[in-house]
Amino acid sequence: MAKFSQYKIALRNFPNELQVYDFQLDNEFFKHMDGAADIQKGSVKVALSVKKTPAAFEFSFDLQGLVYVPCDRCLDEMPIEVNSQNRLFVKFGKEFSEESDEIVIIPEEEGEINVVWFIYEFVALSIPMKRIHPPGKCNKIMTSKLNKYKPDTSGGGDEDEEVEMESDAPIDVDPRWDNLKDLNLDD
Prior knowledge:
Elements: E1 8-10, E2 19-25, H1 27-32, E3 41-52, E4 57-70, E5 77-93, E6 97-98, E7 103-107, E8 112-114, H2 116-125, H3 140-148, H4 175-178
C-alpha cells in the first residue's frame, strides 16, 4: 500500500490536542483501490479529526462529494451523492484486530494506522443497495432490450417502469400452512 502512504496516521507520539487531516479522493484513488470495482470514479472531500483520549484515539470522518457507479438496470454510469459522518476508535494492543465496526486494535510497536481502506468503506457504505436512474433517465436502448426479453411482456413499450422485475401478484400458499393461522398463541 505504498501508493496510499499519505493516509497513514502516526499515533505513537500523538499530541494531546485535536489534529485535522484533509484528503481529496479523486478518479485515481478509486482506480487504484484493489477489489473495489463498484465505484468507477468520483470526487470526495474527507475531513478527518483525530482526538487522543485516555483510553483510545477517536477518529471522526466527514465525507462530502460525488461518486459514479453503474446503474443496476441499464449499466450506464450514474452519480451518487456522498454525505457521511463516521467514527472509529483506535487502541493499542499486541496485534491488529477489529473488535467491532467502530473499534480497531493496532500493534503498539507499529504505532500507526493507514485509514485508506476505512475511508473507502465509508464511501461504499453511503451508496444505496439499489442503484437505479430516476424514471425516464435509463439508457433507452438497454431498456428496450430488457423489455424485449422480459418474461411477462404486456405491451412492449420502452419506459423504465416496465422493466421492474418484482411482481405484485399474490403468492400461492400451501393450504397446510393456513392451519397455523388458527393457533392461539396468547395462552
